[in-house]
Amino acid sequence: MLSPGRTHLRSHRGVNALIPLLLLAAFSLAPLVYANHAVIFQMMAFMVLAQGVNLLYGFTGYLPFGYVGFFGIGAYGMGIGIELFHLPGLAALLVGALFAVVVALILSPLLRLSGAYFAISSLAASEVLYNIVANPALTHITNGPYGESLVQSYHPLTSYVAMVVLLVLTTVLVIVIKNTPFGRALLAIREDPVSAEMAGIAVVRTRTTVWILSALIGGLTGAIFGWHLSVFYPSTVFDLSISILAIVFTLFGGGGTAIGPILGSVVLYGLYNAIGISAPQYFELIYGLLIVLLVLFLPGGVVSLLQRRGSYVP
Amino acid sequence: MSREPLLSVEKIVKTFGGFHALDGVTLTVEPGEILGLVGPNGSGKTTLINVISGLYHPDGGRVLYRGRSIASWPMHQRARQGINRTFQIPKPFKTLTVRENVELAYHFARQGAMTVDNALDFTGLAPSADRPAQSLNSSQQKLLDLARALATGPDLLLVDELAAGLGPQELHHIADSLRSLADRSMALIVVEHHLGFVNQLTDRVIVMNAGKEIFEGSLTLAAEDATVSAVYLGT
After folding, report:
1. With contact defined as beta carbons under 8 Å apart, do B216 and B9 qualify?
2. For an interface test with A, which of B49, B96, B98, B103 has the most A Cβ atoms less than 10 Å from its Cβ?
3. Are residues A4 and B54, on separate chains, in Cβ contact within 8 Å?
Protein backbone atom coordinates (compact mmCIF):
# COMPACT_ATOMS: atom_id res chain seq x y z
CA MET A 1 0.00 0.00 0.00
CA LEU A 2 2.05 2.90 1.32
CA SER A 3 -0.35 5.47 0.01
CA PRO A 4 1.73 8.67 0.34
CA GLY A 5 4.54 7.13 -1.71
CA ARG A 6 2.12 6.28 -4.47
CA THR A 7 0.38 9.62 -4.19
CA HIS A 8 3.70 11.42 -4.38
CA LEU A 9 4.54 9.62 -7.57
CA ARG A 10 1.13 10.46 -8.95
CA SER A 11 0.73 14.04 -7.75
CA HIS A 12 4.31 14.91 -8.67
CA ARG A 13 4.35 12.83 -11.82
CA GLY A 14 4.90 15.94 -13.92
CA VAL A 15 8.02 17.15 -12.18
CA ASN A 16 9.35 13.61 -11.82
CA ALA A 17 8.94 12.94 -15.54
CA LEU A 18 10.42 16.32 -16.41
CA ILE A 19 13.83 15.57 -14.88
CA PRO A 20 14.87 12.68 -17.15
CA LEU A 21 13.36 14.46 -20.17
CA LEU A 22 15.34 17.61 -19.43
CA LEU A 23 18.53 15.58 -19.04
CA LEU A 24 17.84 13.82 -22.33
CA ALA A 25 17.26 17.10 -24.13
CA ALA A 26 20.20 18.91 -22.50
CA PHE A 27 22.81 16.26 -23.21
CA SER A 28 21.49 15.50 -26.70
CA LEU A 29 21.77 19.15 -27.68
CA ALA A 30 24.83 20.18 -25.64
CA PRO A 31 27.41 18.92 -28.17
CA LEU A 32 25.84 21.21 -30.78
CA VAL A 33 26.41 24.34 -28.73
CA TYR A 34 29.51 23.52 -26.68
CA ALA A 35 32.63 22.39 -28.49
CA ASN A 36 34.43 20.63 -25.64
CA HIS A 37 32.63 17.30 -25.85
CA ALA A 38 34.98 15.65 -23.35
CA VAL A 39 33.73 17.98 -20.62
CA ILE A 40 30.09 17.24 -21.43
CA PHE A 41 30.74 13.51 -21.52
CA GLN A 42 32.57 13.53 -18.20
CA MET A 43 29.87 15.61 -16.56
CA MET A 44 27.36 12.95 -17.59
CA ALA A 45 29.63 10.20 -16.29
CA PHE A 46 29.93 11.93 -12.92
CA MET A 47 26.18 12.51 -12.80
CA VAL A 48 25.57 8.79 -13.23
CA LEU A 49 28.26 7.92 -10.66
CA ALA A 50 26.80 10.43 -8.21
CA GLN A 51 23.39 8.74 -8.64
CA GLY A 52 25.04 5.37 -8.00
CA VAL A 53 26.58 6.72 -4.79
CA ASN A 54 23.21 8.31 -3.99
CA LEU A 55 21.39 4.98 -4.22
CA LEU A 56 23.76 3.50 -1.70
CA TYR A 57 24.64 6.45 0.55
CA GLY A 58 21.56 8.63 0.19
CA PHE A 59 19.10 5.82 0.74
CA THR A 60 20.95 3.37 3.00
CA GLY A 61 23.68 5.44 4.68
CA TYR A 62 26.56 3.27 3.43
CA LEU A 63 29.33 5.62 2.29
CA PRO A 64 31.24 3.82 -0.48
CA PHE A 65 34.69 5.42 -0.66
CA GLY A 66 35.72 2.53 -2.88
CA TYR A 67 32.90 3.12 -5.38
CA VAL A 68 35.54 3.71 -8.06
CA GLY A 69 36.28 -0.03 -7.84
CA PHE A 70 33.05 -0.79 -9.71
CA PHE A 71 33.85 1.93 -12.25
CA GLY A 72 37.34 0.56 -12.85
CA ILE A 73 36.25 -3.06 -13.08
CA GLY A 74 33.49 -2.01 -15.49
CA ALA A 75 36.05 -0.30 -17.73
CA TYR A 76 38.29 -3.37 -17.62
CA GLY A 77 35.33 -5.70 -18.28
CA MET A 78 34.71 -3.60 -21.39
CA GLY A 79 38.37 -3.88 -22.35
CA ILE A 80 38.42 -7.63 -21.87
CA GLY A 81 35.15 -7.99 -23.82
CA ILE A 82 36.67 -6.19 -26.80
CA GLU A 83 40.30 -7.35 -26.66
CA LEU A 84 39.92 -10.91 -25.43
CA PHE A 85 36.44 -11.94 -26.58
CA HIS A 86 36.41 -9.68 -29.68
CA LEU A 87 32.88 -8.53 -28.91
CA PRO A 88 31.31 -5.45 -30.48
CA GLY A 89 31.13 -2.40 -28.16
CA LEU A 90 27.55 -2.74 -26.94
CA ALA A 91 27.98 -6.43 -26.12
CA ALA A 92 31.27 -5.72 -24.34
CA LEU A 93 29.35 -3.22 -22.17
CA LEU A 94 27.45 -6.17 -20.75
CA VAL A 95 30.75 -7.85 -19.84
CA GLY A 96 31.71 -4.72 -17.90
CA ALA A 97 28.32 -4.72 -16.15
CA LEU A 98 28.62 -8.43 -15.36
CA PHE A 99 32.12 -7.99 -13.90
CA ALA A 100 30.87 -5.21 -11.60
CA VAL A 101 27.91 -7.29 -10.43
CA VAL A 102 30.11 -10.32 -9.73
CA VAL A 103 32.53 -8.14 -7.75
CA ALA A 104 29.58 -6.67 -5.81
CA LEU A 105 28.34 -10.16 -4.95
CA ILE A 106 31.80 -11.17 -3.74
CA LEU A 107 32.09 -7.99 -1.68
CA SER A 108 28.53 -8.09 -0.29
CA PRO A 109 29.74 -9.29 3.16
CA LEU A 110 31.15 -5.75 3.56
CA LEU A 111 27.56 -4.66 4.19
CA ARG A 112 27.78 -6.30 7.60
CA LEU A 113 30.03 -3.40 8.56
CA SER A 114 28.65 0.04 9.14
CA GLY A 115 29.75 3.67 9.28
CA ALA A 116 33.46 4.41 8.94
CA TYR A 117 34.32 0.70 8.93
CA PHE A 118 32.32 0.14 5.76
CA ALA A 119 33.71 3.30 4.14
CA ILE A 120 37.33 2.27 4.80
CA SER A 121 36.90 -1.39 3.89
CA SER A 122 35.20 -0.49 0.60
CA LEU A 123 38.19 1.78 -0.11
CA ALA A 124 40.55 -1.10 0.65
CA ALA A 125 38.52 -3.38 -1.64
CA SER A 126 38.89 -0.95 -4.54
CA GLU A 127 42.67 -0.83 -3.95
CA VAL A 128 42.73 -4.64 -4.07
CA LEU A 129 40.87 -4.58 -7.39
CA TYR A 130 43.29 -1.98 -8.74
CA ASN A 131 46.29 -4.07 -7.75
CA ILE A 132 44.83 -7.22 -9.26
CA VAL A 133 44.06 -5.51 -12.57
CA ALA A 134 47.43 -3.73 -12.69
CA ASN A 135 49.39 -6.86 -11.77
CA PRO A 136 52.02 -7.62 -14.48
CA ALA A 137 51.24 -11.35 -14.01
CA LEU A 138 47.83 -10.68 -15.60
CA THR A 139 49.27 -8.91 -18.63
CA HIS A 140 47.75 -11.51 -20.98
CA ILE A 141 44.25 -10.63 -19.68
CA THR A 142 44.27 -7.00 -18.55
CA ASN A 143 47.58 -5.91 -20.12
CA GLY A 144 48.64 -5.23 -16.52
CA PRO A 145 50.07 -1.80 -15.81
CA TYR A 146 50.42 -1.01 -19.52
CA GLY A 147 46.77 -0.14 -19.95
CA GLU A 148 44.05 -1.01 -22.44
CA SER A 149 43.86 0.23 -25.98
CA LEU A 150 40.46 -0.24 -27.62
CA VAL A 151 41.09 1.95 -30.65
CA GLN A 152 39.69 -0.65 -33.05
CA SER A 153 36.30 -0.24 -31.36
CA TYR A 154 36.49 3.53 -31.00
CA HIS A 155 32.97 4.88 -31.49
CA PRO A 156 32.75 8.35 -29.94
CA LEU A 157 29.17 8.94 -31.02
CA THR A 158 27.78 5.54 -30.03
CA SER A 159 29.50 5.67 -26.65
CA TYR A 160 28.24 9.23 -26.10
CA VAL A 161 24.68 8.13 -26.87
CA ALA A 162 25.14 5.11 -24.57
CA MET A 163 26.10 7.46 -21.73
CA VAL A 164 23.04 9.65 -22.33
CA VAL A 165 20.83 6.56 -22.26
CA LEU A 166 22.49 5.30 -19.06
CA LEU A 167 22.07 8.71 -17.42
CA VAL A 168 18.38 8.89 -18.29
CA LEU A 169 17.71 5.30 -17.18
CA THR A 170 19.63 5.74 -13.91
CA THR A 171 17.72 8.92 -13.13
CA VAL A 172 14.41 7.18 -13.82
CA LEU A 173 15.51 4.31 -11.57
CA VAL A 174 16.33 6.67 -8.69
CA ILE A 175 13.00 8.49 -9.08
CA VAL A 176 11.08 5.22 -9.13
CA ILE A 177 12.93 3.84 -6.10
CA LYS A 178 12.47 7.08 -4.18
CA ASN A 179 8.72 6.99 -4.70
CA THR A 180 7.98 3.32 -4.11
CA PRO A 181 7.85 1.19 -0.94
CA PHE A 182 11.27 -0.21 -1.82
CA GLY A 183 12.79 3.26 -1.36
CA ARG A 184 10.93 3.76 1.92
CA ALA A 185 12.23 0.40 3.08
CA LEU A 186 15.77 1.57 2.30
CA LEU A 187 15.26 4.76 4.30
CA ALA A 188 13.83 2.69 7.16
CA ILE A 189 16.90 0.43 7.11
CA ARG A 190 19.13 3.52 7.19
CA GLU A 191 17.24 4.79 10.24
CA ASP A 192 17.09 1.56 12.21
CA PRO A 193 17.77 -1.92 10.80
CA VAL A 194 16.26 -3.73 13.81
CA SER A 195 12.99 -1.81 13.60
CA ALA A 196 12.99 -2.36 9.85
CA GLU A 197 13.20 -6.13 10.39
CA MET A 198 10.36 -5.98 12.91
CA ALA A 199 8.32 -4.05 10.34
CA GLY A 200 8.69 -7.11 8.09
CA ILE A 201 11.45 -5.75 5.83
CA ALA A 202 14.05 -8.33 4.74
CA VAL A 203 17.00 -6.09 5.55
CA VAL A 204 19.85 -8.20 4.16
CA ARG A 205 18.10 -8.95 0.88
CA THR A 206 16.93 -5.36 0.41
CA ARG A 207 20.30 -3.74 0.97
CA THR A 208 22.11 -6.39 -1.09
CA THR A 209 19.74 -5.57 -3.95
CA VAL A 210 20.54 -1.87 -3.80
CA TRP A 211 24.28 -2.63 -3.45
CA ILE A 212 24.16 -4.66 -6.67
CA LEU A 213 22.11 -2.00 -8.47
CA SER A 214 24.63 0.60 -7.40
CA ALA A 215 27.54 -1.58 -8.56
CA LEU A 216 25.79 -2.18 -11.89
CA ILE A 217 25.48 1.58 -12.42
CA GLY A 218 29.15 2.13 -11.52
CA GLY A 219 30.25 -0.73 -13.77
CA LEU A 220 28.23 0.46 -16.78
CA THR A 221 29.55 3.99 -16.33
CA GLY A 222 33.12 2.69 -16.24
CA ALA A 223 32.51 0.50 -19.29
CA ILE A 224 31.09 3.34 -21.38
CA PHE A 225 33.78 5.70 -20.08
CA GLY A 226 36.54 3.27 -21.08
CA TRP A 227 34.92 2.76 -24.47
CA HIS A 228 34.69 6.50 -25.09
CA LEU A 229 38.27 7.10 -23.91
CA SER A 230 39.50 3.98 -25.78
CA VAL A 231 42.96 4.23 -24.20
CA PHE A 232 43.29 4.01 -20.43
CA TYR A 233 45.51 2.74 -17.64
CA PRO A 234 44.61 1.11 -14.30
CA SER A 235 45.53 4.38 -12.58
CA THR A 236 43.04 6.27 -14.80
CA VAL A 237 39.97 4.21 -14.03
CA PHE A 238 40.79 3.27 -10.42
CA ASP A 239 41.66 6.86 -9.46
CA LEU A 240 40.33 7.46 -5.95
CA SER A 241 39.40 11.04 -6.81
CA ILE A 242 36.59 9.60 -8.97
CA SER A 243 34.97 8.23 -5.79
CA ILE A 244 35.60 11.45 -3.91
CA LEU A 245 34.09 13.65 -6.63
CA ALA A 246 30.98 11.47 -6.95
CA ILE A 247 30.51 11.51 -3.16
CA VAL A 248 31.01 15.27 -2.88
CA PHE A 249 28.59 15.95 -5.75
CA THR A 250 25.96 13.84 -3.98
CA LEU A 251 26.61 15.45 -0.59
CA PHE A 252 26.50 18.94 -2.08
CA GLY A 253 23.21 18.47 -3.90
CA GLY A 254 21.62 16.22 -1.30
CA GLY A 255 21.38 12.44 -0.99
CA GLY A 256 18.11 10.53 -1.00
CA THR A 257 16.70 12.74 -3.78
CA ALA A 258 16.90 12.44 -7.56
CA ILE A 259 17.71 16.09 -8.19
CA GLY A 260 20.48 16.47 -5.57
CA PRO A 261 23.26 14.54 -7.34
CA ILE A 262 22.35 16.20 -10.67
CA LEU A 263 22.57 19.64 -9.11
CA GLY A 264 25.84 18.76 -7.37
CA SER A 265 27.40 17.47 -10.58
CA VAL A 266 26.38 20.50 -12.65
CA VAL A 267 27.54 23.10 -10.11
CA LEU A 268 30.72 21.45 -8.81
CA TYR A 269 31.89 19.82 -12.03
CA GLY A 270 31.23 23.15 -13.71
CA LEU A 271 33.34 24.85 -11.04
CA TYR A 272 36.04 22.22 -11.48
CA ASN A 273 36.26 22.98 -15.17
CA ALA A 274 36.13 26.72 -14.66
CA ILE A 275 39.00 26.94 -12.18
CA GLY A 276 40.09 23.41 -11.29
CA ILE A 277 42.51 23.15 -14.20
CA SER A 278 43.73 26.75 -14.42
CA ALA A 279 44.06 27.36 -10.65
CA PRO A 280 43.99 23.95 -8.97
CA GLN A 281 45.15 25.28 -5.60
CA TYR A 282 42.09 27.55 -5.23
CA PHE A 283 39.85 24.78 -6.43
CA GLU A 284 41.20 22.38 -3.81
CA LEU A 285 40.72 25.08 -1.18
CA ILE A 286 37.12 25.70 -2.19
CA TYR A 287 36.42 21.99 -2.31
CA GLY A 288 37.92 21.33 1.10
CA LEU A 289 35.99 24.20 2.66
CA LEU A 290 32.79 23.08 0.96
CA ILE A 291 33.07 19.56 2.38
CA VAL A 292 33.70 20.87 5.91
CA LEU A 293 30.84 23.37 5.71
CA LEU A 294 28.42 20.87 4.21
CA VAL A 295 29.08 18.20 6.80
CA LEU A 296 28.84 20.72 9.64
CA PHE A 297 25.90 22.84 8.58
CA LEU A 298 24.06 21.23 5.69
CA PRO A 299 24.32 17.42 5.89
CA GLY A 300 21.23 17.07 3.70
CA GLY A 301 22.82 19.11 0.91
CA VAL A 302 21.49 22.16 -0.92
CA VAL A 303 18.07 20.61 -1.56
CA SER A 304 17.52 20.23 2.21
CA LEU A 305 17.04 24.02 2.29
CA LEU A 306 13.89 23.45 0.23
CA GLN A 307 12.86 20.34 2.16
CA ARG A 308 13.06 22.28 5.43
CA ARG A 309 10.48 24.68 4.07
CA GLY A 310 8.22 21.74 3.39
CA SER A 311 8.61 21.76 -0.40
CA TYR A 312 8.51 18.51 -2.31
CA VAL A 313 11.95 17.77 -3.75
CA PRO A 314 11.97 15.14 -6.50
CA MET B 1 -7.16 -25.41 30.13
CA SER B 2 -6.05 -27.71 27.39
CA ARG B 3 -5.58 -25.23 24.56
CA GLU B 4 -2.48 -25.54 22.41
CA PRO B 5 0.00 -22.86 23.52
CA LEU B 6 0.77 -20.21 20.91
CA LEU B 7 4.33 -19.92 22.18
CA SER B 8 6.44 -22.37 24.16
CA VAL B 9 9.84 -21.35 25.39
CA GLU B 10 11.79 -24.40 26.54
CA LYS B 11 14.96 -24.25 28.63
CA ILE B 12 16.38 -21.24 26.83
CA VAL B 13 20.01 -20.44 27.55
CA LYS B 14 21.70 -17.25 26.38
CA THR B 15 25.22 -16.37 27.44
CA PHE B 16 27.29 -13.25 26.85
CA GLY B 17 30.90 -14.30 27.44
CA GLY B 18 30.77 -16.06 30.80
CA PHE B 19 27.55 -14.35 31.88
CA HIS B 20 24.37 -16.45 31.75
CA ALA B 21 21.70 -13.85 30.86
CA LEU B 22 19.16 -16.66 30.43
CA ASP B 23 19.76 -19.90 32.26
CA GLY B 24 17.08 -22.38 31.24
CA VAL B 25 13.88 -20.32 31.12
CA THR B 26 10.68 -22.19 30.32
CA LEU B 27 7.25 -20.67 29.77
CA THR B 28 4.15 -20.91 27.58
CA VAL B 29 1.59 -18.39 26.39
CA GLU B 30 -1.85 -19.10 24.97
CA PRO B 31 -3.89 -17.03 22.53
CA GLY B 32 -5.77 -14.24 24.29
CA GLU B 33 -3.57 -14.43 27.36
CA ILE B 34 -1.52 -11.67 28.97
CA LEU B 35 1.63 -12.84 30.70
CA GLY B 36 3.44 -10.36 32.95
CA LEU B 37 7.20 -10.74 33.11
CA VAL B 38 8.69 -9.07 36.17
CA GLY B 39 11.97 -9.21 38.02
CA PRO B 40 14.88 -7.04 39.07
CA ASN B 41 17.16 -5.29 36.58
CA GLY B 42 19.44 -7.73 34.80
CA SER B 43 17.21 -10.72 35.48
CA GLY B 44 16.93 -11.46 31.75
CA LYS B 45 13.45 -10.17 30.87
CA THR B 46 14.48 -8.09 27.87
CA THR B 47 16.98 -10.76 26.78
CA LEU B 48 14.10 -13.23 26.65
CA ILE B 49 12.04 -10.81 24.53
CA ASN B 50 15.06 -10.41 22.26
CA VAL B 51 15.34 -14.19 21.86
CA ILE B 52 11.63 -14.63 21.09
CA SER B 53 11.63 -11.78 18.56
CA GLY B 54 14.79 -13.11 16.89
CA LEU B 55 17.21 -10.30 17.75
CA TYR B 56 19.35 -12.80 19.69
CA HIS B 57 19.97 -16.44 18.86
CA PRO B 58 19.77 -18.63 21.94
CA ASP B 59 22.74 -20.81 22.91
CA GLY B 60 20.45 -23.59 24.07
CA GLY B 61 16.81 -24.60 24.31
CA ARG B 62 13.90 -24.21 21.88
CA VAL B 63 11.34 -21.58 20.97
CA LEU B 64 8.17 -23.12 19.51
CA TYR B 65 5.57 -20.92 17.83
CA ARG B 66 2.35 -22.70 16.90
CA GLY B 67 4.26 -25.89 17.64
CA ARG B 68 7.08 -25.16 15.17
CA SER B 69 10.66 -24.39 16.07
CA ILE B 70 11.46 -20.89 14.86
CA ALA B 71 15.19 -20.89 15.58
CA SER B 72 16.14 -20.34 11.94
CA TRP B 73 13.57 -17.58 11.27
CA PRO B 74 15.03 -14.11 10.76
CA MET B 75 13.21 -11.26 12.49
CA HIS B 76 11.28 -10.14 9.42
CA GLN B 77 9.90 -13.64 8.96
CA ARG B 78 8.75 -13.71 12.59
CA ALA B 79 7.09 -10.34 12.00
CA ARG B 80 5.33 -11.70 8.92
CA GLN B 81 4.21 -14.77 10.87
CA GLY B 82 2.61 -12.64 13.58
CA ILE B 83 5.29 -12.06 16.22
CA ASN B 84 5.99 -8.43 17.02
CA ARG B 85 7.32 -6.23 19.77
CA THR B 86 8.01 -2.80 21.20
CA PHE B 87 11.39 -1.66 22.45
CA GLN B 88 12.46 -0.50 25.90
CA ILE B 89 14.37 2.32 24.25
CA PRO B 90 12.02 3.25 21.41
CA LYS B 91 13.31 2.72 17.88
CA PRO B 92 11.24 4.76 15.44
CA PHE B 93 12.31 5.63 11.87
CA LYS B 94 13.15 9.15 12.99
CA THR B 95 13.07 11.14 9.77
CA LEU B 96 9.87 9.51 8.52
CA THR B 97 6.52 10.80 9.71
CA VAL B 98 4.48 8.92 12.30
CA ARG B 99 2.11 7.75 9.60
CA GLU B 100 4.94 6.61 7.30
CA ASN B 101 6.40 4.59 10.19
CA VAL B 102 3.15 2.70 10.61
CA GLU B 103 2.52 2.38 6.88
CA LEU B 104 5.86 0.65 6.34
CA ALA B 105 4.96 -2.00 8.90
CA TYR B 106 1.48 -2.36 7.40
CA HIS B 107 2.90 -2.74 3.91
CA PHE B 108 5.78 -5.13 4.56
CA ALA B 109 4.39 -7.43 7.22
CA ARG B 110 1.10 -9.24 6.81
CA GLN B 111 -1.93 -7.02 6.90
CA GLY B 112 -4.01 -7.88 9.92
CA ALA B 113 -7.24 -6.65 11.38
CA MET B 114 -5.89 -3.16 12.09
CA THR B 115 -5.44 -0.63 9.33
CA VAL B 116 -2.89 2.17 9.59
CA ASP B 117 -5.59 4.55 10.82
CA ASN B 118 -6.84 1.99 13.37
CA ALA B 119 -3.35 1.62 14.79
CA LEU B 120 -2.88 5.39 14.97
CA ASP B 121 -6.26 5.86 16.67
CA PHE B 122 -5.65 2.98 19.04
CA THR B 123 -2.39 4.49 20.30
CA GLY B 124 -3.72 8.05 20.32
CA LEU B 125 -1.14 9.13 17.76
CA ALA B 126 -3.61 10.15 15.04
CA PRO B 127 -3.25 13.90 15.81
CA SER B 128 0.54 13.59 15.35
CA ALA B 129 0.33 11.45 12.21
CA ASP B 130 2.05 13.94 9.92
CA ARG B 131 4.82 14.94 12.31
CA PRO B 132 8.30 13.48 11.92
CA ALA B 133 8.80 10.69 14.44
CA GLN B 134 11.83 12.43 15.94
CA SER B 135 9.60 15.28 17.17
CA LEU B 136 7.68 12.93 19.48
CA ASN B 137 8.63 12.61 23.14
CA SER B 138 9.94 9.35 24.48
CA SER B 139 6.56 8.02 25.69
CA GLN B 140 4.96 8.84 22.35
CA GLN B 141 7.81 7.11 20.55
CA LYS B 142 7.08 3.98 22.59
CA LEU B 143 3.46 4.24 21.53
CA LEU B 144 4.68 4.56 17.95
CA ASP B 145 6.59 1.29 18.40
CA LEU B 146 3.28 -0.18 19.56
CA ALA B 147 1.33 1.26 16.62
CA ARG B 148 3.90 -0.12 14.21
CA ALA B 149 3.76 -3.53 15.85
CA LEU B 150 -0.05 -3.53 15.75
CA ALA B 151 -0.08 -2.63 12.06
CA THR B 152 1.72 -5.91 11.34
CA GLY B 153 -1.33 -7.79 12.66
CA PRO B 154 0.46 -9.73 15.41
CA ASP B 155 -0.85 -12.82 17.18
CA LEU B 156 1.91 -12.54 19.75
CA LEU B 157 2.88 -9.09 20.99
CA LEU B 158 5.93 -8.54 23.18
CA VAL B 159 5.67 -5.28 25.11
CA ASP B 160 8.91 -4.10 26.71
CA GLU B 161 8.39 -1.49 29.46
CA LEU B 162 5.72 0.58 27.84
CA ALA B 163 4.64 2.16 31.14
CA ALA B 164 7.88 3.95 32.03
CA GLY B 165 7.35 7.71 31.93
CA LEU B 166 3.56 7.60 31.65
CA GLY B 167 1.17 9.35 34.08
CA PRO B 168 -1.46 7.44 36.10
CA GLN B 169 -4.30 8.29 33.75
CA GLU B 170 -2.35 7.29 30.64
CA LEU B 171 -1.35 4.07 32.39
CA HIS B 172 -4.96 3.23 33.07
CA HIS B 173 -5.87 3.90 29.48
CA ILE B 174 -2.99 1.81 28.12
CA ALA B 175 -3.85 -1.09 30.43
CA ASP B 176 -7.43 -1.02 29.11
CA SER B 177 -6.15 -0.93 25.54
CA LEU B 178 -3.79 -3.86 26.02
CA ARG B 179 -6.58 -5.88 27.64
CA SER B 180 -8.81 -5.16 24.67
CA LEU B 181 -6.09 -6.63 22.43
CA ALA B 182 -6.11 -9.82 24.49
CA ASP B 183 -9.91 -9.89 24.14
CA ARG B 184 -9.34 -10.15 20.40
CA SER B 185 -7.34 -13.32 21.18
CA MET B 186 -3.93 -11.69 20.79
CA ALA B 187 -1.33 -13.12 23.18
CA LEU B 188 0.81 -10.59 25.04
CA ILE B 189 3.99 -10.85 27.05
CA VAL B 190 4.43 -7.66 29.03
CA VAL B 191 7.80 -6.86 30.59
CA GLU B 192 7.25 -4.27 33.28
CA HIS B 193 8.76 -2.70 36.37
CA HIS B 194 5.57 -0.91 37.28
CA LEU B 195 3.82 -3.63 39.32
CA GLY B 196 0.56 -1.68 39.71
CA PHE B 197 0.33 -1.60 35.92
CA VAL B 198 0.99 -5.34 35.69
CA ASN B 199 -1.68 -5.96 38.29
CA GLN B 200 -4.23 -4.07 36.20
CA LEU B 201 -3.33 -6.20 33.20
CA THR B 202 -3.17 -9.78 34.31
CA ASP B 203 -3.37 -12.41 36.99
CA ARG B 204 -0.54 -14.44 35.62
CA VAL B 205 3.00 -13.24 36.15
CA ILE B 206 6.36 -14.91 35.95
CA VAL B 207 9.05 -13.53 38.23
CA MET B 208 12.55 -13.85 36.83
CA ASN B 209 15.87 -13.67 38.60
CA ALA B 210 19.38 -14.32 37.24
CA GLY B 211 18.08 -15.78 33.99
CA LYS B 212 15.61 -18.21 35.56
CA GLU B 213 11.93 -18.11 36.38
CA ILE B 214 11.53 -18.29 40.15
CA PHE B 215 7.79 -17.88 40.51
CA GLU B 216 4.64 -18.27 38.45
CA GLY B 217 1.19 -17.19 39.60
CA SER B 218 -0.62 -14.01 40.61
CA LEU B 219 1.16 -10.88 41.81
CA THR B 220 -0.55 -11.14 45.21
CA LEU B 221 0.82 -14.61 45.72
CA ALA B 222 4.20 -13.49 44.39
CA ALA B 223 4.38 -10.84 47.12
CA GLU B 224 3.92 -13.56 49.74
CA ASP B 225 6.49 -15.87 48.19
CA ALA B 226 9.68 -16.20 50.25
CA THR B 227 12.06 -16.53 47.26
CA VAL B 228 10.52 -13.54 45.48
CA SER B 229 10.78 -11.30 48.51
CA ALA B 230 14.34 -12.44 49.07
CA VAL B 231 15.22 -11.43 45.50
CA TYR B 232 13.40 -8.10 45.66
CA LEU B 233 14.17 -7.07 49.23
CA GLY B 234 17.40 -8.96 49.79
CA THR B 235 16.03 -10.49 52.98
Report:
1. no
2. B103
3. no
